Amino acid sequence: MSKAKITWLGHASIRVEAGGKVVLFDPWIRDNPVCPIKVEQIKKVDAVCVTHGHIDHIGDSIEIVKRTGTAFICSPEIGMYAEKHGLKYDAQSTPLNIGGSWETDGFTITMVNAAHTSDIMGEEYKKDGTVVPGSGSVGYVIEFKEGPSIYYGGDTGVFGDMAIIRDLYSPDVAILPVGGKYTMGFREAGYAASLIHPKYFIPIHYDTFPNQKLDLNKLVEEIKVRAPHVAVVRWKPGEVFEYR
After folding, report:
1. What is the pLDDT of residues 115-125, one digit of tens each?
2. Which pTM was predicted?
3. Domains in the chain, start-ordered, CATH in brackets?
C-alpha cells in the first residue's frame, strides 16, 4: 500500500493524497494547457495551499475554496486579497507567515522560504491585466501522520536555507521547479537536491508551453553528480507517483 499518491496536474499544480487526506498546491486548472482535469471535478479536498500571486499559481484556488469550503493556506496578503473576492479573512482562509504552521487531523503544513518575486495576478489580471501589489513567494512542508514529509517549493531559485528545511523537516520528497528563466534550472536544481537530501526529487514547472520543452536527462545528470542518492521522478501531467 502506498503511503502517498502525488498527482501532477500540469505546470506547478500538485495533488497529494495520504492517510485519507487530499491537499492541493497552486491549483491552476482552468487555463492550464496541460492540466488533465476540469476545475469542476475537484470535489473532496482538505486544504488548498498557494505559494504566491502569479496567475499560474494562485490560479483557481479561490474558486475551489468557495465551492468546497476547504482550508485556504496562504500568506496574509493573499488572504486579504481573497477577502475582497469573497473569502472572509481568518474564517475562510488560514493565513500563515514564514515559519508558521497549521495543524489539523492527519497532517501539519508549515510555510517556508522561497526565492522568487511576485505581485498578485488574480481576477483583475484576467479581466484587464491589472496587477495587485503582493507579498512575494513562499514554499510549504507538509508532514502527514500517516505518510511522508513533502517539501513543495512553488516557484523558487536555489537558496542556502534549503539546508534548514532539510535539518528541521527531513523531507522524503522535494517537489521543485526546474524550468529555468522564471525559476531555477537544472544546475541549480542539482545543487538544491544536495542541500535537501530527499529520497525523491520531483520536477515541476516545465513542458507547459512549446518553448518550455526540456530534456530531463540533463537534470538527472546534475543530480547524479551532486546528490547521487536522490532519485528523480520522471512523469507527465495526469500521472501519479506513489510513495511507498
Report:
1. 999 888 777 88
2. 0.96
3. 4-243 (3.60.15.10)
